[in-house]
Design brief:
Number of helices: 11
Distance between the termini: 33 Å
Order of helices and strands: EEEHEEHEHHHHHEHEHEEHH
Helix content: 25-40%
CATH class: Alpha Beta
Shape: globular
Number of strands: 10
Radius of gyration: 18 Å
Number of domains: 1
Strand order of the largest sheet: 6-7-8-3-9-10
């Protein structure tokens, strides 16, 4: 199933051409790596997909719907979830409360008014914390977590509906062309392993491999070993254009990538 299709997207900042006719296709149940030298347009493309800014030219279609100029809130309701490099958690709240807020974002005002959702969501939140090895930090303030743990928390908030035992099967996801609000169908991650130890990166990769059973994932990452280990497909940007794309093996042996990308990283 085609999740997103980017066609001829251009973005100019003054005299700087950040994106120059980028084409991109992302399918269900796959992890895509977006790599390239600094300044190649990776984050600009992610922001264009998420709605942080609109392209000057081109179109972006999500689940067959044109979202090129749609605001981020509406994109999230369609099932687009994003985690940027800088964490955006609530540092003065505990881990449990951060996850509760993420889960309650999709609840009706009636349920929130009568405080019915917290009890119903309790077991799911415990399950998510266990998945991300945060169960022992449940009631610690987020500001007291390590950088890697904060990264895990934000990823868990973005993927909270993808890692529990209550997730839909692949067949159900494929049949359901209108997902419920905040049910991620495409997860955008900007450097998710930044600041993590080797063991933390390994666990993060395992969690993302599990999450891809129910969505597509696009990752911007400088850790090439991490990208090669978990990605099904890699797209290489250079000077705002797609330089090459293919399987990790194809990209690793690409003369264009070796010449233009790896020598500059």
């Amino acid at each position: 199933m085609r999740i997103i299709e980017v066609q001829g997207v251009c973005k100019q900042f003054g005299t700087l051409c950040a994106l120059n006719g980028v084409n991109l296709k992302i399918d269900h149940n796959k992890i895509y790596g977006l790599i390239g030298p600094n300044g190649s347009g990776k984050t600009t493309l992610m922001k264009a997909i998420s709605g942080a800014h609109f392209p000057d030219k081109g179109t972006i279609c999500f689940l067959g719907q044109d979202i090129t100029c749609m605001n981020p809130h509406l994109r999230s309701q369609l099932g687009l979830s994003i985690k940027f490099q800088i964490t955006s958690v609530f540092p003065e709240l505990c881990v449990y409360d951060n996850l509760l807020i993420a889960k309650q974002a999709g609840e009706s005002s009636w349920k929130l008014l009568w405080s019915r959702s917290k009890k119903a969501l309790h077991e799911e939140i415990l399950e998510i914390m266990e998945c991300f090895h945060l169960q022992d930090r449940a009631y610690d303030r987020v500001s007291d977590l390590s950088h890697g743990e904060q990264q895990w928390l934000e990823i868990s908030m973005a993927t909270h509906d993808l890692l529990s035992n209550r997730e839909l099967s692949q067949e159900q996801q494929a049949e359901n062309s209108t997902p419920s609000p905040l049910k991620p169908r495409l997860l955008l991650l900007d450097e998710p392993t930044a600041g993590m130890s080797k063991e933390e990166r390994k666990i993060t990769g395992e969690l993302l491999l599990k999450a891809k059973q129910n969505c597509a994932i696009l990752i911007v990452e400088h850790d090439l070993d991490f990208i090669k280990d978990i990605c099904d497909h890699i797209i290489v940007l250079s000077n705002g254009e797609v330089l090459d794309e293919g399987t990790p093996e194809e990209i690793e042996s690409s003369n264009q990538v070796i010449e233009v990308y790896t020598s500059r990283v």
